User: Fold these one by one.
Assistant:
Number 1:
Amino acid sequence: MVQDAGRPGHMHEGVPPGGALVPELLARANAAARNAPGAAGIESFGALSLEAREDTLVAFDDGTARPLSAGASLTIACEGARVRYVAVRGGIGVPELLGGRGTLLVASLGGHEGRALRRGDVLRAGDAPGVDAAMPAAPDLAAPVRVVPGPDHRRFPDEALDLLLSSSFVVDARSDRVGVRLAGPALPRLGSDSGASSPMVRGAIQVPPSGMAVVLGPDHPTTGGYPVLATVIARDFGSLAARPPGARVRFVTQP
Amino acid sequence: MTLEPFGDSAWRVPLATCPDPRALLDALRSIPHVVDAVVAEEHALVAFDATCPPSREDVDAAVGRALGPVTRALGAEHTVPVRYDGPDLEEVARETRMTVHEVVVLHAESTYVVATVGFLPGFAYLRGLDARLVLPRRSTPRARVPALAVGIAGPYAGIYPFASPGGWHLLGTAVGFTPFDARTGATLALGDRVRFVPVPP
């Protein structure tokens, strides 16, 4: 589906921040296409075949680019990666809605007709002028993920944070843009979830009654009722979200 | 004022009372370097770029002003026509020991106020539900509630802007109302007032 740098400034309308699941990888594909880091590109969770209608330059999150002449095609597979990004010179030219061009599935908003791409869809390249920027680093998928504890300390026993920081978790296959689900030890909680919904952020580690943590992703509901044990710092979210199902995750507090 | 760190890119502010949530939201959104602000009933949130946070003093001052004595401006008023054809009408009537007609009259008689916008784009938690209609959420949520379903849960009424899973009791369907528009955003804003008007099936 088409994704860009997101739709900041609309959370008070219930619109989540959005943006690429792994912003660093979209920025790498864009840098290779000489686009701005947050230009709209294609976020792909499976195999993707593209055929050029006109001569264009196509770029990938490994930092490479290649010209694709009219009629030529290419296929990109995920090959063990969680997600891959493809950029074209000038960005994907879908309309900007509420400050972004990305797809928000729950609201059928943005991207290409508000939905994931299907076979036969035709996308236009935008006409943004080329920019030269340094190639951003790819996220380190083995690094511990840094968190800030809280903010719902009082809804957990003390040992919950210790357990989060001392355990190894595994990315669950049911993860999506709404949340990264983690398999691991059940995290204990205090009390029930009867209070009013509170504002949420990307990276919040929510603990539902099952004790199985969910790290909220870019398309998270803007409010929620489950307590948040700790929150992944902004620059480490991509490292977590880029891990494929089955990959290991350890958390550390931000030094 | 307590600013609770919520990751490295947001602060959460506990709200004991908030006489004018809309004034607080507008004040928070106008602070330099605040990218996003949300005001719910128990907490407010300001989100920002971790490398460029707003000043804590600005946030403190905005919260202090909004929690002090205020002249409360009335929000916009919306009239929402409702066809009372919801699948849970009879169950709600049974559980509240009323007739379906009484449930409809009570639901349509109140004036509601938008207390929080969240959950889905354009979804408003509406306060003002008659106490006789307060019921816990359904024990088993539906996998799919249709767009424009009008429901109640706990002390709230609401309108689903999009089809979604949901645990609310469904009383009817909003007619000729657009909760969320791709170009203009959410129709209902914090502090707005809402009235439901029954229309024939």
Note: The domain at 145-253 of chain A is CATH 2.40.100.10 (Cyclophilin).
Number 2:
Amino acid sequence: MNPSVEALRATFGSAIGRALESCGDTIVYVRHDALLAVLAWLRDTPDQRYDYLVDVTAVEYRDRERPLEVVYNLRSLDRRVDLRLKVELDPAGDLTVDSVVPLWRGADWLERETFDMFGITFRGHPDLRRILMWDTYVEGYPLRKDFPLRGRFSRAEQVRQALAANPEAHYSMEELSIAEAYEELPPDMRERLRRGERGKVADSE
Amino acid sequence: MKRVIEAKEVAGQSPNYLLAKVQDLVDWAVNASRANSLWPMPFGTACCAIEFMATAASRYDFARFGMERQAFSPRQADVLICAGRLPFKLAPVIRRIYDQMPQPKWVISMGACASTGGIFDNYAMVQGIDTIVPVDVYVPGCPPRPEGLLYGVLLLHKKIKGESLFDGVPRREEQPLDERGLRLPPETIDEISEPFGNSVHQFRSA
């Protein structure tokens, strides 16, 4: 068992749930409202120094009673230690956790992917949009257990929607470096870039 | 050959033998030129693209069949080779590339995924690129060996050599784009996305 678990318990008390070891990795369950503080503490405390966020992802189990888990894989590059944190969320409830982009800039696309596939909202994320599916995709979140494998629409409808999507409006203005050319863009592309964020797109479609 | 003979009735008289011969000669010259200098536009998205590269490289070398220059720009390409699976996100991209290619143009669908969706019968994958662009030759395999792709190219040669300039099929028709030039017009999209093709599960989401 990773000694960081005891240090976490001593510091955060009841915010730390059960801990277990699986295949040599230590898994710690953290209450979702303490997540940001715990991660910041793990990153900044001199004894811990988990300075590298390996991955952010999520798991939904087939067993409907089990909560949906958001998984954070941490690594301390100079101590050469791994630690896995999990946050449990009620799949029927509000799927919201704090974004860790303020701690690790690299969490940006990881959280966008988790949002895209699971529909988990990361509070405080600077640019939470779909990243794998196109931003007008309205069928839902593909990796959720209630999502049918072939999607919700017929193939013909899927082809229609895919062809109607504009592949170039998918990128943010920063990605395209077209901030200067903004006024010359077609109106619908301008509108989409202006709205920028996810959610609003689905509402207006 | 039948198309040439049928079209050669001149003013109610017997078929014009000389004209037919001239048209045959023109067809032969044009088709031989086209077939023997196909410039491929590779659209490689997956492991088929690796086999495509092997086909293009020195051991199999499809330059032997006139595909000397790979056109990485659709404007200079004759045949679009879709090598690999096509997600829905790339569907408008390949359609646009196809529309940008000048006539005459052909499409080879390389591999199981491009032809039918293959094992990827899921929410993200186009079930056969023939639902997006018209396809001339399907090359089976997962992925096809270079010999398979070369055989497909030779089949395409055969098809090209059977075409005629005089059969009334419009070959210079450009795909109209709307004024923004970005997307297909809605009626064209509806037309394309009609259930069509050799793919399964076209009508319902199972």
Note: The longest strand of chain A covers residues 68-76.
